[in-house]
Design a protein that fits this description.
The protein is built from two helices and no strands. The chain has about 100 residues and is an all-alpha fold.
C-alpha cells in the first residue's frame, strides 16, 4: 500500500514558490507549448495538398549514359514542339470564331 505523508512540516506555499520548482514548471510548460506547435505544423505540412497530381508525374532515371540522354532529350523536344503547334492552332481556331 502507499505510504502516507508523515512529515512534521506543514504543506505551505513555500514549496510551490521555490525558484527551482518554478523554473522547472516554466521550462516544462514552455517545452510542451512549443512541442504542440511543432507537432501541429508537421501535421499541417503532411496533410497539405501539394498542388500537383502525383499520378501524372513523369520520373526518369538512368545511369550516366549520355547517348540515352540525348535520344530522350530529342524525343521530348519533338513532343514539346508538337504540343506547342497544336496549342497554337487551337488558339487560332478559337480566335477566328
Amino acid at each position: 500500500m502507499g505510504e502516507k505523508y508523515t512529515s512534521t512540516e506543514p504543506l505551505t506555499d513555500k514549496s510551490f514558490t521555490n525558484p527551482d520548482h518554478l523554473t522547472n514548471r516554466y521550462f516544462h510548460g514552455i517545452t510542451l507549448f512549443y512541442c504542440s506547435i511543432i507537432i501541429s505544423q508537421i501535421h499541417f505540412i503532411k496533410d497539405k495538398p501539394l498542388g500537383i497530381i502525383t499520378d501524372q508525374v513523369l520520373r526518369i532515371s538512368w545511369l550516366d549514359n549520355s547517348s540515352n540522354y540525348q535520344a530522350l532529350k530529342e524525343k521530348l523536344l519533338k513532343h514539346l514542339i508538337f504540343c506547342m503547334y497544336v496549342m497554337e492552332s487551337i488558339s487560332q481556331t478559337l480566335a477566328h470564331h
